[in-house]
Amino acid sequence: MVEKRLTKREGVSTILDIRVQELEVWYGPAKALENVSLHLEQGAVLALIGPSGCGKSTFLRVLNRMIDQVPTVRVKGSVHIGAFNVLDDDIDVTALRRTVGMVFQQPNPFPMTIFDNVAYGPRLAGVRSATKLRQIVEDSLKKSALWDEVRGKLRRSAMTLSGGQQQRLCMARALAVHPHVLLLDEPTASLDPVSTAKIEELIVQFKGRYTMVIVTHNLQQAARVSDLVAFFEQGHLVEMGPTHDIFTAPQERRTEEFLTGRFE
Amino acid sequence: MNEQPLNLKRLHPTRHGRTAHGLLAALAIVALLLLLSVLLPLVWEALPALTAPFLWGKGQGAIGPEVLNTLSLVGGSELLSFPLALLVGLYRVEWVKSQGPLLRVFDQFATTMLSVPSIVIGLVVVDVAIARWHWPVSTMTGIVALALMNWPLSVAYVVEALQQIPGRYREGSWALGASRWQTVRYLILPLAWPQMVEQAGLATARLMGETAVLIYTAGVNAAVHWSLWGPGESLAVHLWLLRTEGVGQNAQAQAAATGVVLLAFVVLVLWGSKRMAQWLKNA
């Protein structure tokens, strides 16, 4: 049932690859990204690595226009996700964000019931039928591997869940609006190793179904879950390539220094 | 700094804890006794005057009209000021993105308004509403004055309640495609209501005891009537008047009784707002 819906939607929708050309971002006078161009194919997992403040999160937040929340930000260049011209002023940001879901570093479930958390997005989208909502909630929780732990407890507050469960709930919440792209901003940074493993498992499972971009400070994690790795430094995209190639034979000296810990 | 090495033999956590507990409990008891020392004589003094005809009769000295005036003054001013404060607060917290100079000016202005003495607001209302627009000294004028007084405080607690909601909730909502308005409507307001209602209760209780601003605007007369344009003496003003100018053998007892009634209303409002906040929290 779930599979069917997904393929049906994919049939209807255009290709959801991500094309970024000459992207530049300023925060006030400070340049956060400079001349970033990359292409990510549909269903692939891209890991963004690099030192703190190198522009990884900025790049991620451009993709679903969450960057708009920063008062002094200016963005130049072109970003296309499928048919969306992301940087277009007239773009329907709501539609974009439904297509491009996001999971944050700190699990941020809303202080309401587990059910209401997952149903939040669909309700905003106008789904009123209780049966339909239940179905979406169940589907989403199953996809994020949380269903077995919370079935029968859907009316409990999401705040009663553990950190790892909360993060998977946030995954479910993002999946409930049927996105095609998932942005993961250090999704395991605040989790214990077991919870981290579960999230990584999900990412691997989602390969091919969702195009994913994950920011991570954990290089092993990038190696484990991603198809492609992009190394950022001081707002520049230094190098991008297949994960295996980047980790075994990086082309750039800076990348190698970063990967081997000789980075200053 | 000469740091003493930690001497475990000189640490007495249990004993220190008990001493601190005892000290704080003693302070609390002292405070309670002080409160009772004011309250009990007041109630004692009020008892002879607390009769049914005094509370809801129409005769000489009955405070029925004052009760009604107090309720309409306080209710009316909250109806006027709270929605306005909510709009301002929402705009200030949820819509304004920049941290620019305009915002600082606004915050400064709001703080200044908070510290304007109520009597100044009363004089402004007298000057504008009564002297220029020829409004009568009435409940309505009092409502406007109280609303003006209450408004900055309401803005302050609305802003505080909204700012206490972590930004990551908003981010989560926006990332799901919610607009600012939807986020406010379905996420922020439901979370902020309990605190706002509780604070509104506190503000209302404060308004009930307000006198200075009302003496000139709502007046010191009361009559049995249902019009907002009639004389609008409130309980607190009545109390003040009886205590300062009351004549007749019963005046002081009546003042005390008025005070007790006023106190009862204040307690009722505080308790009610707390219960409502609790109910909203669990809803």
Descriptive overview:
Chain A has helices spanning 2-12, 56-63, 93-99, 114-124, 130-143, 147-150, 163-175, 193-206, 219-225, 243-248, 253-259, and strands spanning 18-27, 30-40, 45-49, 73-81, 84-85, 100-103, 181-185, 211-215, 228-233, 236-242. Chain A has 264 residues and is α/β, with parallel strands linked by helices. Chain A has one domain (2-259): P-loop containing nucleotide triphosphate hydrolases (Rossmann fold, 3-Layer(aba) Sandwich). In chain A, helix 4 (114-124) crosses helix 5 (130-143) and helix 4 (114-124) packs parallel to helix 7 (163-175). The longest helix of chain A is centred in the middle third of the chain and has 14 residues, at 130-143. The termini of chain A are far apart. Mean pLDDT of chain A is 89; it is low at 1-14. Chain B has one domain (61-282): MetI-like (MetI-like fold, Orthogonal Bundle). Chain A binds chain B through residues 64, 66, 69, 71-72, 93-98, 101-102, 104, 106, 108-111, 120-121, 123-125, 170, 173-174, 177, and chain B through 97-99, 166, 168-169, 171-179, 182, 186-187, 191.
For the largest beta-sheet of chain B, the strand count, sense and barrel status come to:
none
What is the β-strand count of chain B? Answer: 0
Looking at the structure, what is the overall shape of chain B?
Answer: globular
> How many H/I helices of chain B?
11
Instruction: Calculate the terminal CA-CA distance of chain A, rounded to whole Å.
Output: 51 Å
The end-to-end distance of chain B, rounded to whole angstroms, is: 54 Å
> What CATH architecture label of chain A applies?
3-Layer(aba) Sandwich
CATH domain class name of chain A: Alpha Beta
- Biggest β-sheet description of chain A: 6 strands, mixed
**CATH topology tier name of chain B:** MetI-like fold
CATH topological fold name of chain A: Rossmann fold
- pLDDT < 50 stretches of chain B: none
Report Rg of chain A. Answer: 18 Å
Oligomer: heterodimer
Determine the mean pLDDT of chain A: 89
Keywords (chain A): ATP-binding, Nucleotide-binding, Transport
GO molecular function, one term (chain A): ATP binding
InterPro entries (chain A): AAA+_ATPase, ABC_transporter-like_ATP-bd, ABC_transporter-like_CS, P-loop_NTPase, PstB-like
Organism (chain A): Sulfobacillus thermotolerans
